[in-house]
Amino acid sequence: MAYIMNPYLPKVRRLAVNDVEIRNLSCASVARKYGVHRSTVGRWVKKASPDHKEFIYNLSCRPYHHPDQLSPEMVNKVIRIREEYGRCAPVIHELLKKEGVYISLSSVGRILKREGLTRKPKRAEFDNLNPKRPLPGEPGGLVQADTMHITRSDYSRYYIYAVLDLYSRFGYAEYKENIRQTDSLNVILNASKYFGFIFQMVQTDNGPEFKTGFRHNLKSHHIILRHSRIRRPNDNAHVERFIRTIQEECFNGKRPKEKQVNKQLKEYLEYYNYERLHLGINLQTPAQMLRRS
Hints:
By secondary structure, the protein is of the alpha/beta class. The chain contains 11 helices and 5 strands, in the order ααααααβββαβαβααα. The longest helix is centred in the middle third of the chain and has 15 residues, at 181-195.
């Protein structure tokens, strides 16, 4: 029987069988009626239920066996090593080779997946904790934060935290040699002190410096943490643009010298917050927006 995905075909098969069994039509006449070969109608009759009321569905095309199918002994070896060592497919594959058992890495992975021995991908811890995004109707109502990664000549990195208030567009940036959740908290508190108002909600991406510990630290200071959606950088578009502005205007598109970063940032922030006109706030400065609030 040809494998066809037409959803109406099972019913058509039953009707054809009824024409043969109940109406006593010949297989040839039924075949002409439905546009199939008479041998096809004969096979439908053989597959029909005794009462001729059930539809005749497609049978699975999955083979019963395969010449290269793994033996049960091989499958049990993979399962045994997994349960004994608790390691991943590449490690199990290497251990099997040391035992003189040769099996492809993909086969090991398929066995683990089929037997339910693979770990489920971790879901974001904060999925059920993420509060609704508020409208930035006042200073500190919604503040975005992110980090800029800068690569040294030896391929190690240092970092610049960027914090931006969405209502006033007041910005803050700070150099850090490392990124840790405690550093993230210190930057947020320093930014709040620099801005001169209390933050109500901070929105960040899903970086390791903004995880559960950072949430609890903010909560102790009565600040709510909100995360942007995974792989949705546009959720943090304002602070992303602030980082790009720092790169273009403060560092002139070049890699800054690490010893001079803090001095450069301090001088630029004075210009950015008190002199630079912003299109997003009707050609005003962030300082003017704060005076209006």
